[in-house]
Write a structure and sequence with these properties.
single chain; 4-stranded parallel sheet
Length: 111
């Protein structure tokens, strides 16, 4: 698939994270829509039915978290095919080690 046929939904609540991801994708000439929480993502994916080719999801969203959003995407026939890329901003390595199960949880939510 060419870059011109791609459209990516970014679900990130942090404005800096939104800006970084959107900037990188824009630099690559990939159209991107950015929303700040899972409810806005639900609206774009399930109500507006925008034809995204993938979704980048922050795992630590306010309200419904990224894990639940990925499960909803995979449970819906119209969106189950979408690759979901999980991101998070765990800055502390010790915290990351205590969250070793998060990787497995993200993979299984996106399966």
């Amino acid at each position: 698939m060419s870059r011109n046929n791609r459209r990516i939904l970014v679900v990130e609540d942090d404005p800096d994270g939104q800006a970084v991801i959107a900037h990188i994708l824009s630099y690559m000439n990939v159209p991107v829509d950015v929303v700040g929480d899972a409810e806005q993502a639900d609206h774009a994916l399930f109500m507006q039915q925008i034809p995204y080719t993938s979704v980048i999801i922050d795992l630590a969203l306010p309200g419904k978290d990224g894990f639940a959003l990925m499960r909803d995407i995979k449970a819906n026939n119209a969106t189950a095919h979408l690759p979901c890329i999980a991101v998070t901003a765990y800055h502390n390595f010790d915290l990351l080690l205590t969250r070793a199960g998060e990787r497995y949880k993200a993979i299984t939510a996106g399966s």
